[in-house]
Amino acid sequence: MAIVPETKARVAGLETGKYKYGFVTDIEMERAAKGLNEDVVRFISAKKGEPEWMLEWRLGAYKRWIEMREPTWARVHYPPIDYQNAYYYAAPKSQAERPKSLEDVDPKLLETYAKLGIPLSEQKMLAGVAVDAVFDSVSVATTFKAKLTEAGVIFCPISEAIREQPELVRKYLGSVVPVSDNFFATLNSAVFSDGTFVYVPKGVRCPMELSTYFRINASETGQFERTLIIADEGAYVSYLEGCTAPKRDENQLHAAVVELVALEGAEIKYSTVQNWYPGDEEGKGGIYNFVTKRGDARGNRSKISWTQVETGSAITWKYPSCILRGDDSTGEFYSIAITNNFQQADTGTKMIHLGKNTRSRIVSKGIAAGHAQNTYRGLVSVHPKAANARNHTQCDSLLIGAKCGAHTVPYIECRNKTAAVEHEATTSKISDEQLFYCLQRGINQEEAVALIVNGFCRDVLQQLPMEFAVEAQKLVGISLEGSVG
Amino acid sequence: MNMLEIQNLHVAVGGKEILKGINLSVPAGEVHAVMGPNGSGKSTLSYALAGREGYEITEGRILYQGADLTALAPEERADKGVFLAMQYPVEIPGVTTLNFLKTALNAQRRARGAPELDAMKVMRLVREKAATLKIPEDMLKRALNVGFSGGEKKRMEILQMAVFEPKLAILDETDSGLDIDALKLVADGVNALRDPSRAMLVITHYQRLLTHIVPDRVHVMVDGRIAKSGGPELALALEEQGYERIVEAAA
Question: What is the pTM of this model?
């Protein structure tokens, strides 16, 4: 795939470590009281105008969470997080009444998204991409709703779905990631504020790409989004999320939960371009990204495909997984994880083969530069009934410089004799010969690194929807600025 | 005017002096050959001209179009028209040959203040040049040098030279590892690029390349110095008598 000229100009023109999304929008915010307790959970639920059952669900989660311990098995190190020293809800005051249309949205917010390269006016948008824009704890705008409604597709903030689609939400929320799944997912279940809800009805191929753009703006505030996507029988949907945050010295917590449900013959393609603020060259600041993402290929012949480009965050703890429940169902995980400076990533996937003839494919590309540590952690589990299950895992690491680390931790559990599980792994470095070769042809060092790394990631970049592949390629280059020489 | 003028060039690698006072001039329009036994410093000379890191110039200078090159980074030299066809072209997995050529060509054009070419224009340009070197279309779509045979890699170097149109081309053992047909193809490619405005320095171990690319001058390098210079007949004499006798006679 070609690297566009803007990439080169941007890579060449920027100073080391410049994070162009690091600005702060000056806007009046309404927050919950600092810290986390039952009252805060009630406050959030009330703000969202939620029905009683939802509040009960949250409170149940909160009660479990206070009994739980933060997991420590990942290869990431950070000082203890004081969960009482953060805000769990922050929303622009101007959005107190949810705007009916784009004209009513606070211009400051529209400006913010325009600056991020996400114009929310439908005329200016990428044709064929609908956007839900989430700012701290609330969704501020959702585009192309009318067009999607025509096709029967529901695409709205999850807070709206809880009010307006209670049957669907009650049926599926927590059905893939149970309330008590893990520390961060349980925390999210108690305090999640906004996120996206998608329902694609039977036999419908969603007519456009759906995407959510998450922006953290407020300081000392965590973002806890919740996304739920359901593809009914024979439906298809492609969804993409993007994330950015301001540059700050403090660490901010982001603990999201994403649940995907694919019924018989349905397919969900979920792509992520994660570019949370990664911290500075000394490792100061940055987002702690503790995310639980799981897809349930519930029906026969269903398919779930995860593609992620992880370039941001100080710490990434994330394992988008597939439960291959239906017979002949397919799970895919394509990942690029780039860590530079003092970033730490522990990321991978779980492929749980339950049904017969289930297939999974894992392609992971980990790139470490500076003092960064990059770990692939993955589980392939074949259950006794998963006859003829197939998995292929390809796990490649690329090291840039001598102070970083790459680690691969694959777990394989196979309890069916007819299954075939394959694991391949490589580790390589950008060689002096490769760099010199590029330099000799007039390609400068940063551009050469971007070119070589993009080549290394090609198999994964090709999986992204066209509209976002270009953006992802640019990010790859920018994330590695200053990593050589 | 001399396109390249090397004056008393001393180069050390890892603290060890390899080039010990090279003097050599190549006027525009001429092709000069540098021959020499293994370990005489031929590849060090090519890397020093290209500005590779670790090749430290301890004394002397390299004038290119009359200006000193020694302070310039490798990519700046490339932008100014210095091209090195490498002895061992590297593989860049996942980067198609065409994409690599486009990236490099546009980097050079940008540095020279010329407008960048879009993918279609680059494609047309590269196709046209590739045809004369008998490089098939599918090779352009494959990752650069990955899985290429030795001959294909060397042809790819010449293709790049044809695309970038350098003013000074240094060919480092471009003939090594080639069978006779591949050698002929590469030599034809090089001869087609001979031009009154271009200088070439052909570094080789064997005379056989020079029957196809007939040089204007031949320089014999021994132990980091030019031991003898002469016309094309010197290459033949070397082939017949060996380096030792020629060098002894020169000493």
Answer: 0.86
